[in-house]
Amino acid sequence: MTTNKTPSASTPRKGGTSGKSGRRHPLASVALIAIGLLFTGAGYAALSTTTASATTDASSQQTIDEGEKLFAANCATCHGLALEGSDVAPSLLGVGAASVDFQVGTGRMPMQMQGPQAQKKPTQFTEAQTAALAAYVASQAPGPAIPAGEVLDASGDAANGAELFRINCAMCHNVAGAGGALTEGKFAPAIKDVSAAHIYEAMITGPQNMPVFNDMNVSAEGKRDIITYLKYIENNPSPGGVALGSLGPVAEGLFIWIFGLGAIVALTVWITAKSN
C-alpha cells in the first residue's frame, strides 16, 4: 500500500531556494527616497532659476522702456530719436551707460544753454531716472559700463595715484585737483567733492575736452589709485597752512604782491610819518 506524503511548509522548494529570497535589500527604500529627493530638488532649482531670470529680464526691459520715454521727452530734440545726433548735439551711439550716468548725474545734461562746454549744476533727474536713461542708451549700442566694486573704494595706492595724476591730469586739473583755465572759454573743473564713480566715468568716457583714458593708458587699478589720491587730498587739509585755492605759484605770488608789498609800503609810510 502506497502512502502519499504532502510536503510541509518547511520543506525546501525545488532548486533549494527558500521563500525568503524574494525580499528587497534593507537599503533599497533609502536609496529610492534619496533619488526622489535629488530629482525633486533639481527640478525645483531649475524652475526657480528660470523664474528669477524671467523676472530680471522683465525688470531690465521695463527700465529700458522707461528710459526710452524719458529720452524722447527730454533728450531727443537735440540728440535725435535714434541717438544719431544733430547740428547742436553729438551722437550717443556707443557712448555707453557710463557717459550718460556722468553727464546726467552731474547735472551737465540737459544743458541750460549753448556754450563752450556744459556746466555742472543741480541734477534734473532722480537716480532711478538717470539709471533708466543710461540703460536705454546702453541698449542701443555697446559702450563703457557704469563702474562698480573695489575700483571705487578709494583704498588703493595713494602714492602711485599721485604720480599717475601728475603725469596724466595735473596739466589741466592742477596737481591738487583745483581745476584750471583752458582755451576759448573752456576749463578743467575742480575735482573736489566729486563722487568716485563720476571720476572713474570721466576717465573712461572723456567728457568735454578731456581725453579718454582706457585700460591701455591707465589700468583699472591705476584709476583706483588716482581716485584714492584725490580722496586723500580732499579729506586732508593743506600741510602748508592756507591753501589759497591750491592754484600754485600764481595765487601765492599775487598774495605776496598785494598783501606783502602793501604791508611794506604801509610800514614805510608809518616810519616816515613818525620821524617827522
UniProtKB/TrEMBL annotation:
Q: How is it modified after translation?
A: Binds 2 heme c groups covalently per subunit.
What residue intervals traverse the membrane? Answer: 27-47, 254-273
Q: Which InterPro entries has this protein been placed in?
A: bc1_cytC-su, Cyt_c-like_dom, Cyt_c-like_dom_sf, Cytochrome_c_Oxidase_Subunit
Q: Where does heme c 2 bind?
A: C169, C172, H173
Name any one Pfam family assigned in the record. Cytochrom_C
Which stretches does the entry tag as region Disordered? 1-23
Protein's UniProt name: Cytochrome bc1 complex cytochrome c subunit
Source organism per entry reads Cryobacterium psychrophilum
